[in-house]
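Hi again,

Forgot to attach this to my earlier email, sorry! This is the prediction with flavin-adenine dinucleotide bound. I've pasted everything inline since the attachment limit keeps bouncing my files.
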Amino acid sequence: MGDVAALPTAKTGAAVRKQAPVVVDNILKLIAHKTADNKGYNGYSSCPLVTGYGKMVLAEFGYGNKRMSDPLISTFVDTTKEQWSMWILKKYGLPYLYWNLMLRGKA
Ligand SMILES: Cc1cc2nc3c(=O)[nH]c(=O)nc-3n(C[C@H](O)[C@H](O)[C@H](O)COP(=O)(O)OP(=O)(O)OC[C@H]3O[C@@H](n4cnc5c(N)ncnc54)[C@H](O)[C@@H]3O)c2cc1C
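Structure tokens for the complex follow:
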């Protein structure tokens, strides 16, 4: 998984975050002598694009670069529109997510 995976989608930390639980589930199944049949990863990837001071859009897509949105994020915000809230996410939220949650397997 991650940047070395030969998957037809963009290589991002966002993709790793969605791939990791699927890989872990499959490894645990193999350890338990079960079939590694979790195909739950749908190609999701996303790139935060800072479009100006205090403005950002989140380009979200899946396999084949088809537009897709994280169900949780899209509940709160339209990621296709330049927004201050998205910029705050990039500046403060994502670093916290990377360092404190993702790297510890909590998100
Ligand atoms: C400039 C830039 C900005 C980015 N911004 C974003 C962003 O905003 N959001 C986002 O989601 N993604 C972003 N990405 C993409 C994201 O950083 C990568 O997709 C993600 O880090 C891939 O994680 P990985 O664990 O697969 O690989 P890596 O993070 O590359 O980890 C691989 C590790 O393996 C180590 N390694 C390599 N060879 C060996 C070896 N022989 N022995 C031991 N260790 C080895 C490397 O040193 C490295 O630490 C960005 C990438 C770049 C370059």
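The chain has three helices and two strands. Strands lie at 45-52, 55-61.

That should be everything now.

G.
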